[in-house]
TrEMBL record:
Keywords from the named record: Oxidoreductase
Pfam families: AlaDh_PNT_C, AlaDh_PNT_N
Domain Alanine dehydrogenase/pyridine nucleotide transhydrogenase NAD(H)-binding: 177-325
EC nos: 1.4.1.1
Enzyme class: oxidoreductase
Keyword Isomerase: no
Stated name of the protein: alanine dehydrogenase
Length: 403
């Protein structure tokens, strides 16, 4: 008997596995990070540091091999952060929440799990009716970067990418003004005894702000056009100096374009597609060798002669004016852009895990709801419905019926 007592006492001292602590409302969510198929897209939504934070909070992250390679993040970086690195796109696309930069193609949608959540760019200028129908057939809840809002009504992804595009766009203009690229042979800004280059910026939002900062820093003269006086006033305050500003009227704008070396189309559509404010006749009156960069080309652009181009073939000529119309300018600086995207989406994914999934986020947060364009087999965006001749249902009514 004494020996039995000793054995029982000894056994009670052996460490036992502690039960896992489960927080109320929280459940494990699988996040998929597939490699971008398009050679045009070099960004990735989550950095290894962000993946480490998510996995430490109990989420499973599945990363397709090579997903971060273009942004100089290795598979080893993701593996060390706790991600599961897989060697087929199917495994990443079958996650409960799929994070992509570029919108998936029909083949990728087919590989996704029915009823899952997709968070990616929409890039409406590239999409067609079949894309929406494929999402609805799989009953996928799709959320567009471009429509996503934050708690104060701002558009965080649009703002972040616009900052990057605005800072980059003047450097692109400087490249194509160079004689090496058959431009006018001008230095951006000019030098002593030589007049500065003339830059026209159409729009007074975030892209315009950062493009204007860069242009002024390089010594260029700028003229900014927008039909919202409050935006023009705010831009002058942000820049801290007097600049030429004007509302958009054909006569004044035509005169400014005729003298411009660089034209930046920085208008963002408020509802659906952008309006054309620079027609072909205005472009024909511009100086030969000038450059047009339409940053909003993914929404149709604001310049009649603009059409979407690629990083491999970024420019074309119309009336001897160079046109640069690449939709994803931020992809030129993919590492910076990836960190910026990761900073936005990491806290959103953590909130999603706390609530229990994407649908709970939609139901609880109006700012997140704004990004939804398909929900459980229904198109919920009225503009897309008109564009592709499809029926749509109000998301609020669908949620009310479900809950």
């Amino acid at each position: 008997m004494p020996n039995e007592i000793k054995e029982i006492a000894a056994a009670s001292l052996i460490p036992k596995e502690a039960p896992a602590v489960v927080q109320k409302g929280q459940r494990s969510i699988t996040i998929g990070l597939p490699k971008e198929k398009s050679s045009e897209e070099r960004r990735v939504v989550l950095t290894p540091e962000a993946v480490g934070l998510l996995t430490n909070n109990g989420l499973e992250v599945v990363v397709e091999t090579g997903a971060g390679k273009a942004s100089k993040f290795s598979d080893q970086d993701y593996s060390d952060a706790g991600a599961k690195v897989v060697y087929s796109p199917e495994e990443a696309l079958q996650a409960q929440v799929v994070l992509k930069v570029d919108a998936p193609d029909l083949g990728e949608i087919e590989k996704m799990t029915p009823g899952s959540c997709l968070i990616s760019a929409l890039q409406i200028g590239r999409q067609n009716r079949e894309f929406i129908e494929a999402l609805n057939a799989k009953k996928i809840t799709a959320i567009a970067f471009e429509y996503l809002e934050d708690k104060v009504g701002g558009m965080p992804v649009v703002r972040a990418m616009s900052e990057i595009a605005g800072s980059t766009v003047m450097l692109i203009a400087a490249e194509y003004l160079s004689s090496v690229n058959d431009g006018k042979g001008l230095i951006m800004g000019g030098v002593t005894g030589v007049p500065p280059t003339q830059v026209v910026i159409i729009g007074a939002g975030t892209v315009a702000e950062y493009a204007a900062r860069t242009a002024l820093g390089l010594g260029a003269n700028i003229k900014v056009f927008d039909n919202h006086i409050y935006k023009l006033r705010r831009l002058k305050q942000l820049l801290g100096q007097q600049i030429y500003t004007s509302t958009i009227d054909n006569l004044t704008l035509t005169q400014a374009l005729a003298e411009a070396d660089v034209v930046i189309g920085a208008l963002r559509a408020e509802k659906g597609r952008n309006k054309i404010v620079v027609n072909e006749e205005m472009v024909a009156n511009m100086m030969h060798g000038s450059i047009i960069i339409d940053v909003g080309i993914d929404q149709g652009g604001c310049i009649e002669t603009a059409r979407m181009t690629t990083h491999q073939d970024p420019t074309f000529m119309v009336h001897d004016v160079i046109h640069y119309c690449v939709p994803n300018i931020a992809s030129r600086v993919s590492r910076t852009a990836s960190y910026s995207l990761s900073n936005i989406f990491t806290p959103i994914i953590l909130q999603m895990a706390d609530l229990g999934g994407a649908e709970e986020m939609i139901f609880n947060y109006r700012w997140f709801l704004r990004g939804v364009y398909t929900y459980r087999g229904s198109l919920t965006n009225a503009y897309l419905a008109r564009k592709f001749d499809l029926t749509h249902k109000e998301l609020q009514l669908l949620l009310a019926a479900r809950y």
